[in-house]
Amino acid sequence: MKKHNFSAGPAILPATVLKEAAKGVLNYQGSGLSLLEMSHRGPEFTAIIEEASALVEELLEIPPNSGYHVLWLTGGASTQFFMVPMNLLDSTQMAAYVDTGTWANKAIKEAKAFGQIEVLASSKEQNYTFIPKGWKVPKNARYLHLTSNNTIFGTQYQRFPKSPVPIVCDMSSDFLSRPIDVSAFGLIYAGAQKNLGPAGVTVVIVREDMLGQVNRHLPTMLDYRTFIKEKSLYNTPPVFPIYVSMLTLRWLKKLGGTKVIHRRNKAKAKLLYDEVDANPLFVGTAAKEDRSLMNACFVMAPGYEALEKEFLKEAEANGIVGLKGHRSVGGFRASMYNALPKSSVQVLVDLMRDFARRKG
Ligand SMILES: *Cc1c(COP(=O)(O)O)cnc(C)c1O
To answer: What's the domain range around 267?
Structure first.
């Protein structure tokens, strides 16, 4: 039976992408070699990484010669938690962070080793159920760090705040899920495995004037300038994750890009949240105005808590996988990344409705 993959990450990829990727593993474009056994400096992979970077620029409408560079790194988004302050924040400087969840919190913890960190706001006391508002960014901050989508708690910035200083943003779980104005950001990073490709590669988009302003020794492999100068080929990059990411980028372009996928993502999220709000057995955990289009978190309504296991079991029987909520929230989390079809959301919604009819 076909599975409906609501997994939070590594997550669903388009079926056509997986098929093409599988072909490349066996025999890359009739070359008689697997992509996995080819030189990363050969013409095949050079074309792949160049196309991948060009597609990111095209899909995000980054103008040529705007000073932005698309880089392909390893170490996951978690490595960016320290690589960002290491490269951007001098020990005498201050950076501003907003604490909107587990990942933001980890970014703050890592950054503290490199300079002064000011946490402008936090929703930790309310278990990160909302995005704090009304905070002001100090003009002397080197940058403002945000987490655009809080994967675990199901909240997302609907709009990015105006900032007098460059924004650095962790977009791991909503990268390319909607149009953004890249010019508002000094640096964007995203682990691929939520919305772009397989685990093993991290995309970084950095504006070059952000770099070269710290007074510390940067190891070659932890210096963004190495990746700019060597076009992400200073050492062997993760060739396969980059290839699959390129295929996903092609898929997204063919679909119509970020505007089209945003419309689809909104329709999927509306379908599910409408059911969560109408169904007496379920209740959403995130503040409505901050609800994520990517990760919808909900629990059994008061009085029905005992039915949680049963619902998960029925979901599984209906081919729904990855629905169990993160242990810090409990209940359910339906991750609806770009590649998840609306028909999968419909299966979940139908089951919720039917479950309420039988158990309510
Ligand atoms: C998953 C996730 C991370 C961690 O990514 P890794 O690639 O596993 O290091 C960081 N930030 C956000 C928002 C995430 O969703």
So the answer is: 258-359
